[in-house]
Amino acid sequence: MSPSRPECALCGATGVKLTKEHIYGDWMSQVLPAELRLRTYRVRTGDSDWRASIQREKGSQTQLRDLCGTCNNVWGSQLEEDVQPIATPMILGRSTSLTRRQAQRLATWVAKIAVLRPYLDPPEHHVIPAEQRRHVRFMNEPPPHSQIWVGSLSRDSDLGRIGRQRTYQLWVPDVVHPDRVGKQANGHTTTLCFNRVVFMMIGCTEELMPLRLPLTDVFKLWPNPSAIDWSPTITVHDEDVAFFSGLPTEEAPFAFLN
Q: Taking the domains of the chain in order of start, what are their residue ranges?
């Protein structure tokens, strides 16, 4: 469990009691098969010398005490309540239909996990700035300069059996201000695999060129969400998911750019 911080990680309120928050809603423990209730998290930090830590998470290990009561028990609870009937058939590999509003709520849920998950780790792993967390909370949508996709995993997918989450720091040149020298950690990717569904998010603190990723058979949840006819028979390749999870490499920092 991470130590208490003086302000709420989402709204920034100070002088309030901070409460326990499950990174993944309690309802997921009832939906996921028992063997998938362990999740793996991996974070990479550094410039040319990567350091990696891998841990399995279960129960209280996916809790943090960094949210005020309103963000946790009111805003967060409503988001989980909205998402549960949307995500459950996707997790279980069943056909379903999403309205534009439901796609937007699902994208917000993915973004909430992405911006809060680093709080389980030391401060040096926190690459997502406060203004992006505030945006998720008060605008009820993913932060600016982010994109989110969703795809169906096949029944025999190794990713689905492992059920892992990965969040990376992205070291990319500052293309907005090319006069600056050197590199800065200004982005992140998050991959969430839950049984038969995978969510992939990439975000940056500054606006980059439009991303052109070699992903097929996936739906884009954000930006510009739209209605989705979801079929578990149209599956994304594990190789594509793995490729996304590792972007970009130090050797090819522009791999995901236009």
A: 18-245
Nearest Cα neighbor of 258 from 200, 151, 175 is 175
- Say what the pLDDT of residue 258 is: 27
In three-state secondary structure terms, 205 is: coil
Helix (H) or strand (E) holding 102: helix 100-116
Nearest to 206 by CA among 178, 228, 174: 174
pLDDT at 36: 59
* Residue 13 buriedness (CB in 10 A; 0-12 / 13-18 / 19+): middle
* pTM (2 d.p.): 0.80
With CA atoms as reference, report the closest residue to 94 among 230, 194, 228.
Answer: 230
* pLDDT the model gives residue 162: 52
Give me the phi and psi of 3, to 5 degrees please.
-70, 155
Q: Which of 36, 42, 14 is nearest to 24 (CA)?
A: 36
Q: How many Cβ atoms from other residues are within 10 Å of residue 224's Cβ?
A: 10
Q: How far is CA 114 from CA 37, 102, 155, in A?
A: 18, 19, 25
